[in-house]
Design brief:
single chain, alpha+beta, OB fold (Dihydrolipoamide Acetyltransferase, E2P), Chloramphenicol Acetyltransferase, 3 domains, seven-stranded mixed beta sheet, four-stranded antiparallel beta sheet, 9 helices, 19 strands
Length: 373
């Protein structure tokens, strides 16, 4: 016998949901066959058979949550010829009955992240009876809580999944660092005109990310990590880009961002954000960042105090671009400015070096045609 064990797919998560079995009990298995799809809070992964044989038993059925190291199923190694074996009452359904049963199971399964499935179980909520209000009618945490509140005035739960991870990392960040935030405006009037006339349509956020990479190249002390009393700067820039999803905050990473031209950077960031929203992101794409940028401009936020993504030493917060009036040569003119909030670990970086980095970033944003392309 060989157990099908749930492996660790992400260092941040200890459980996954079984979302689809490609094989059924009694099916012949060959080494390398895809057996089952499992989903963490961030990604979906296919597990392959490590031996030939027959799928003897499915232990964790579709829709259930398993912990790292749990047995998902059992394979009888070596294989058996089931073509002439006795057919039990459990497996002797007619094709029509089998099809009907498969359709019934399909209708009764609701695809949600492990955290939401665990929450529904803890609150005794039937997912099949909930009408989702998220994008594409997806069930959200609010939908589950609303359903649970029917007949109850209070609801309590332990944090699980990505929410638990976020809580842990943010607490760790604030407890283990001395965080200070510096703020300043960048005049992006020239950048707005440059962007409108650039050969390719590139988002505002991607231009800001590109400027950030340029500034990090000039101030490498901002590009690195502080962990276990060890401060390490990185020669390569692996840029974390905060992305909001229905079930929490993700930070996909643009590896070697210093190698990208503006158009390529824009394409890569959009692809990563799309992967987050479609749950196609994997753990490798969510790890290894050396500096992070988070943009709340789309929510109307100006200045704020972003929390460092540990073990990094800095994070840039981007606010909403606004128009303002300035006096120039005796005339009042309309210009555009971008609010920036730089949080850094004062254990490692003093206020003046952080300010110099921010000044360099502002210069790149304000003098785009001359300095960036």
């Amino acid at each position: 016998m060989a157990d099908i064990i749930l492996p660790r797919m992400d260092e941040d998560y200890d459980e996954s949901s079984v979302i689809f079995w490609h094989k059924q009990e009694g099916d012949s298995i060959q080494k390398g066959d895809i057996l089952v799809e499992v989903q963490t809070e961030k990604a979906v992964q296919e597990l392959e058979a490590e031996t030939d044989g027959v799928l003897e038993k499915i232990v964790v059925v579709r829709g259930e949550v398993a912990a790292i190291g749990d047995v998902l199923g059992v394979i009888s190694e070596g294989g058996t010829d089931t073509s002439n074996a006795e057919v039990t009452s459990e497996t002797s359904e007619t094709p029509v009955a089998a099809t009907a049963e498969a359709e019934r199971r399909e209708r009764s399964f609701v695809r949600v992240a492990p955290r939401l499935r665990r929450l529904a179980k803890d609150l005794n909520v039937d997912l099949t009876k909930i009408q989702g209000t998220g994008n594409g009618d997806k069930i959200t945490e609010k939908d589950i809580r609303t359903a649970a509140e029917v007949g109850s005035s209070t609801v309590g739960e332990k944090l699980t999944g990505i929410r638990r991870t976020i809580a842990s990392r943010m607490k760790e960040s604030l407890q283990n660092s001395a965080q200070l935030t510096e703020t300043a405006y960048a005049d992006v009037t020239k950048l707005a005109d440059f962007r409108d006339n650039y050969e390719k349509k590139i988002s505002w956020n991607s231009w800001i990310l590109y400027a950030t990479v340029k500034a990090l190249q000039e101030h490498p002390y901002m590009n690195g990590t502080f962990e276990g009393n060890m401060w390490k700067t990185s020669k390569k820039i692996h840029l974390g880009v905060a992305a909001d999803a229905e079930d929490g905050l993700y930070v996909p990473v643009v590896k070697n961002a210093d190698n990208y031209k503006p158009v390529d950077l824009d394409h890569e960031v959009k692809a990563l954000v799309q992967a987050v929203h479609t749950k196609k992101i994997d753990s490798q794409q969510l790890s290894g960042s050396t500096f992070t940028v988070t943009n709340l401009g789309g929510y109307g936020i100006h200045f704020f105090t972003p929390i460092i993504n540990p073990p990094e030493v800095g994070i840039l917060g981007v606010g909403k671009i606004e128009t303002y009036l300035a006096l120039e040569d005796g005339s009042v003119i309309e210009r555009m400015r971008l609010p920036l909030s730089l949080t850094f670990d004062h254990q490692i970086i003093d206020g003046a070096p952080a300010a110099r980095f921010l000044q360099t970033l502002i210069t790149y944003l304000e003098e785009m045609p001359k300095k960036m392309v």
